[in-house]
Specification:
By secondary structure, the chain is an alpha+beta fold. It has helices spanning 5-32, 36-58, 64-88, 102-111, 140-150, and strands at residues 92-99, 116-123, 126-136, 155-161. The chain has five helices and four strands. It has a four-stranded antiparallel sheet, covered by helices on one side. The protein is elongated. 22% of the residues are buried.
Length: 169
């Protein structure tokens, strides 16, 4: 079976767009995390692929399948890029644990090697302890699991963090 040239071209454009948009999504994540060097190399590669893909669409405007492949590649690349970024789990997060058993949770987390800062507070139902735990993104699920082992009703908040260089201030 011979594949028509327009289908081959559309498939090539689709794959190129999946790659360049995936890289673009990942590049944005690196920019947010101040990974300038990684973002630079990704941007270079991403733009080369994009130029190739867009030139193929423009030189083949009589083939609507190429435009469809371009758009479908963009959508698919966004999905792949988000998935790729969550797989690598680059960066750090702060886990905030609100718990009536906060002191016990803090002891457990420290025994596992995590740095924990405690604050006392008052919640709707009385005294609570607020814990701040700074972790690598790949360790976040472990913190959540350990906290819930001690206090099943604790309230958990996870936030990405970005370092602020004191030279900027």
């Amino acid at each position: 079976m011979v594949i028509p040239e327009s289908i081959t071209l559309a498939l090539l454009i689709f794959v190129a767009r999946v790659f360049d948009v995936s890289l673009g999504t990942f590049r944005h994540a690196m920019i947010i995390r101040s990974k300038r060097g990684i973002a630079f190399f990704i941007a270079f590669t991403e733009s080369l692929i994009w130029v190739f893909a867009v030139s193929k669409v423009i030189t083949n405007l009589t083939e609507p399948v190429t435009a469809l492949a371009f758009a479908l590649g963009f959508a698919t690349g966004t999905f792949v890029g988000i998935t790729m970024e969550s797989f690598f789990k680059i960066g750090e997060q702060v886990v905030k644990v609100f718990s009536v058993k906060g002191k016990e949770v803090a002891v457990k987390l420290r025994s596992e090697g995590f740095r924990v800062t405690e604050f006392s507070g008052k919640g709707r139902d009385g005294e609570v302890v607020l814990l701040f735990v700074q972790v690598r993104r790949k360790d976040t699920k472990n913190i959540l699991k350990l906290a819930r082992e001690i206090d099943k009703s604790c309230f958990l908040v996870v936030e990405d963090i970005k370092w602020v260089d004191s030279a900027i201030l």
